[in-house]
Automatic annotation (TrEMBL):
Domain of life of the native organism: Bacteria
Lineage, opening ranks: Bacteria, Pseudomonadati, Bacteroidota, Cytophagia, Cytophagales
UniProt protein name: PadR family transcriptional regulator PadR
InterPro entries: Metal_resp_DNA-bind_regulator, Tscrpt_reg_PadR_N, WH-like_DNA-bd_sf, WH_DNA-bd_sf
Pfam family, one: PadR
Segments forming domain Transcription regulator PadR N-terminal: 19-89
UniProt source species: Runella defluvii
């Protein structure tokens, strides 16, 4: 199994969740989303972000408005719709449950590994 493929799949699974969280804070421009995702080490490119934003918009979870820019063409700023806010709340609940479940399993594994290390050094 290729570790890079596994990492990409894990990141894809949470990208929508992270994007919706960023947008939930208020109107946001796509390049600002890219900057925040990159600084959080969630590598994403425009070719991934824009189709995802379009899909979320077409699903009724996002909307956007055009804002004139002093330094170029108008910019598209994204916001969550009321449906998007409810969807994000449900995603947050799922994330909390999933995170707790995964952490329980990982912590048990780490605990057992530590016990095994201690018993092998004695």
């Amino acid at each position: 199994m290729n570790i890079e493929n596994a990492q990409v799949q894990m990141r894809k699974g949470i990208l929508e969740f992270c994007i919706m969280h960023i947008i939930s804070r208020g109107e946001v421009y796509a390049s600002d989303m890219l900057d925040e995702l990159t600084s959080a080490k969630i590598m994403v490119v425009e070719g991934t972000l824009y189709p995802l934003l379009t899909r979320l918009k077409n699903s009724g979870l996002l909307d956007y408005k055009w804002v004139e820019s002093q330094s170029g063409p108008p910019r598209k700023y994204y916001v969550l719709t009321e449906t998007g806010k409810k969807f994000l709340d449900e995603m947050q609940q799922t994330w909390n449950e999933l995170s707790d479940s995964v952490n329980t399993i990982v912590q048990k594994t780490q605990h057992l590994e530590n016990e095994n290390k201690e018993s092998s050094t004695n």
